[in-house]
Amino acid sequence: MLDVAVIDDPAAAMAALDPIKARLLSELSTPASAAALAARVGMARQKVNYHLRGLEDRKLVRHVDERRWGGLRERLLVATAISYVVSPAALGPVASDPKRHADRLSASYVIALGARIVREVGAMWSSARVRDTRLATLAIDTILTFRTPAERSAFADDLAAAVTRLAAKYHADPEPGRRSYRLVVTSYPAPATRRA
Fold first, then answer.
1. pLDDT at position 194, please?
2. Could you give the angle at the alpha carbon of 59 between the alpha carbons of 58 and 62, nearest 5°?
3. Is-contact 96 111, C-beta < 8 A?
4. pLDDT tens, 54-76?
5. pLDDT confidence of 191, banded at 50, 70, 90?
6. Which 3 state secondary structure label does DSSP give 62?
7. pTM for the structure as a whole
8. 61, β-bridge pairs
9. pLDDT value at position 101?
10. What does the alpha-carbon distance between residue 33 and residue 49 come to, in Å, rounded to a whole number?
11. CATH for the stretch 2-84
């Protein structure tokens, strides 16, 4: 089971966003049968089976085992991931794209960058899993508290200068065998409920 799966198929996104199917997905962190799920969620087994078939068709759950229960054979299913993220690719031409935002200091631009990260990394990670290889990535996530707006502005200038210096030091012209990497640095106010 994956830690997180990126959904880029519109039909799979619709299935995952359906409240009943989403509830069944959350219950399938360990293998279970339709009958067991029906008892857990308080629904008829036939209705649970219907929703499970939809999830299985969209590759959000998979068959892992069978067991006999009286004269019947029960299929055991499990979710394909612990959690899911819907890629903007599922939205097709209306998906957010940084190229459509002129104001690089706007919240909409930051959101579009995040959407592009999900779309691009999700597609490359899916491809890497098919090839059974790792995808080289790096992420830095921290929360900073500034004493003043002037300090925040000075930090932004220092960060831009440091990134520019490092990029100049390590950047090489693209050639066969060299892989280019996208570096995204963004900052936004931390939600009030989150603590460092």
1. 53
2. 135
3. yes
4. 999 999 999 999 988 778 889 99
5. confident
6. strand
7. 0.80
8. 79
9. 87
10. 9
11. 1.10.10.10
